[in-house]
# Entry
Amino acid sequence: MRLLKDALARRAMGLITALPAVLVLLIVVGLFLKSKAIVAVEPLSRLLFSSAWHPVQGQFGLLPFIVGTVWVTVTALVLAVPVSIFAAIYLSEYAPRWVRESAKPVVDLLAGLPSVVYGVWGVILVVPFVGNVLAPLAGVHSSGYSILAGGIVLAIMTFPTIIHVTLEVFASVPLALREASLSLGATKWETTRRVVLRKGAQGILAASVLGFSRAFGETMAVLMVVGNVPAVPRSLFDAGYPLPALIANNYGEMMSIPRYDAALMAAALVLTLIVLFFNVLARRILVQVERRVR
Amino acid sequence: MNGLAERSLGRRKRADLFFRILAAASAGLVLLALLLILGTILWKSVPALSLSMLTKTPKGGFYLGKEGGILNAIAGSLYLAAGATALAFLLSLPLALYLNLYKGRGSKTAAWTRFFLDVLWGVPSIVYGVFGFIVMLALGLRASLLAGILTVALLEFPIMCRAIDEVMRLVPRELKEASDSLGATRFETAFKVFVRQAAPGILTGVLLAFGRGIGDAASVLFTAGFTDRVPASLADPAATLPLAIFFQLGTPFPEVQQRAYASAAVLTLIILLISLAGRAMGRKATRHVVK
# Structure
């Protein structure tokens, strides 16, 4: 009886183990099948690289949205990567123990705040700040609902991802290496730069790539502050319209226009594939780092 | 190492100090960002809270009606996140046990499964929303509490699973061997030893996933629908706090916007509470843990 129970449990658990792989496959295949109606009639190049988005006339160029996503994400990373890495350096190399311990809840909480909350914050604070302070400083006119506002909000949302991974990478650099460097008379910063950063370079890259793929798919917070104008943005102060926002905004009404549905599915597919690509890339690098350290 | 000796000690020390301050300032900026967000949200939104806000449903439509509160969203969110978390737990616990008990340390299957879980973790929630919508149509469901629960469960699954897996990896090998040598089947070892040993970590993982689930808007946007009423069955559409914020912030009426702010306050407080509970749990629920 006990053995039977064990055997049954084993089968059931083995079945569940296949779930993650199957799920990844189902998502990609599902999106592909649903977007076939548009991929079959529109050449891929027109779909991806045309900036004409006129659903009513049957023109579905995704370029403005892809460019919008890239702009927002890159802006976010330019802001987030240096700050996160320096913060991680402080926490792992300089900070006293109690600071390091109490930093963990801060990072966790930043990661745990819902994206709508970031969005509300962006609307209350970041959008007026960009519109009334930064734009006049740069000598342009902007409503504040802009790529830059999206980038700032998104940067804060990617802090925890990058900091977390970078801290793990730094922790994997052997203490003995640091001590060797310090004992040769190098200052703390020299040790950090020439030993810790050099050893951890790959890991930091992976952390940034992971941050990129996280930021790329973020929907609600960006959607609320970025303006959502379907045109290729020309400056940081222009409104943009990222892919996830496109999907979120238009999903309800898509049924009425032929092939709109499929075009949105294609957008979701493009988004998924890009995110998966960078995600897998980051994981690969991290696995390598882990192996080398061990 | 060409320049070390040539540069004067003073300059090197100044560089050290400079970067020390830069690094500390960066860490300070991260903390400031968090405080600024929490401060702004709570300062703006707590005044919107009142008893009637919390205990009444909106009157005359959630977008236009000026009367009433956000009970529909609070109840909807709690039902939805609780259901999804339970469902995700039913999948995550066996999977984590299987990876750690039935598969050895160097197992290829385990490594690949973890890889795919990481991949799933990285899938944006809007994609889960779209996927959930496709599945919903395929199953012939309407936007409902059930469809929302299924979608959010998918979103929570990799998060919870990886969290539980991480704590189970820390369970000492010797405990498993001791249990084996007493003649326990692996199934018994799983639930009588591993689950108890990892209990605090499992609870933290469950809370983490619950927090993600209750705060996510993009995945329920097409699947759970939105309504003024508290859902009475799984087939009813359900309002959720994140969507209550999203929809009601955009109205031209200040009274309705107040409901968005109140929802933001409730959601933020729930997340804060979960985060605190998670920490306390990590420390406290160690009654059955062998050290």
Observations:
- Residues 24 and 276 of chain A are 10 Å apart (CA to CA).
- The mean pLDDT of chain A is 86.
